[in-house]
Amino acid sequence: MKKILLTLLLLGSTLMAEVRQVVATPKFVNSTDMKIIDIRTPGEWVETGIVKGSYLLTFFDERGNYDIDSFLAQLNMIVDKDKEFALICRTGSRSGMVSHFLGNQLDYKVVNLQGGLMNLFSQGFKTEPYSPAKK
Predict the structure, then answer these.
(1) Which of 26, 39, 80, 85 could form a disulfide with 35, with the two C-beta atoms 3.0–4.6 Å apart?
(2) Contact indicator for 129, 49 with CB cutoff of 8 Å
(3) Angle CA 79–68–25, to nearest 5
(4) Of the ranges 10-14, 21-25, 34-38, 99-103, which one carries the lowest mean pLDDT score?
(5) Which of 97 and 6 is assigned the larger pLDDT?
(6) Cα separation of 88 and 39, whole Å?
(7) In what helix (H) or strand (E) does residue 39 lie, and over which residues does it extend?
(8) Distance, CA of 111 to CA of 132 (rounded, Å)
(9) How much is the average pLDDT of 34-63?
(10) What are the residue boundaries of the structural domains of the chain, listed by start?
(11) Is residue 24 helix, strand or coil?
């Protein structure tokens, strides 16, 4: 039930989306000064590696569960709500939903990196290995 409610909330918020959409490209992630938050799971970080310098903060766990309060508490330790930052996931689906929620419901200045890591990989991008110490 919790998943259905969040999905409806997030889908409804996309109708008024003012979140900036940027295609995930190696040029963008290598040249931006903005913070990039990787919202994938630790298992995904291990499997594919991470974008160098990104911040690792899972939104949905392996079962699709989430804890908004915990996520926001951790996010607020990383970003300033009034400064633009980017979200990335595997394909851009989760980061799209979460960025719309953060931007439209909570007024964060957020960029969704469309296509996610898979788009970066299709362009030859190389990640760095994940180390639990980096989290």
Answers:
(1) 85
(2) yes
(3) 50
(4) 10-14
(5) 97
(6) 6
(7) none
(8) 26
(9) 95
(10) 2-134
(11) coil
Please determine, for residue 56, whether its predicted confidence score (pLDDT) is greater than 60.
yes
List all residues 6 or more positions away from 100 whose beta carbon is below 8 Å from its beta carbon: 10, 13, 14, 17, 19, 112
pTM recorded for the entire structure: 0.84
HEC sequence for 105-131:
HHCCCEEEEECHHHHHHHCCCCCECCC
Residues in the chain: 135
Average pLDDT over residues 47-70: 94
Domain covering 2-134, topology: Oxidized Rhodanese; domain 1 (3.40.250)
Of 58, 52, 16, 44, the C-alpha closest to 128 is 52
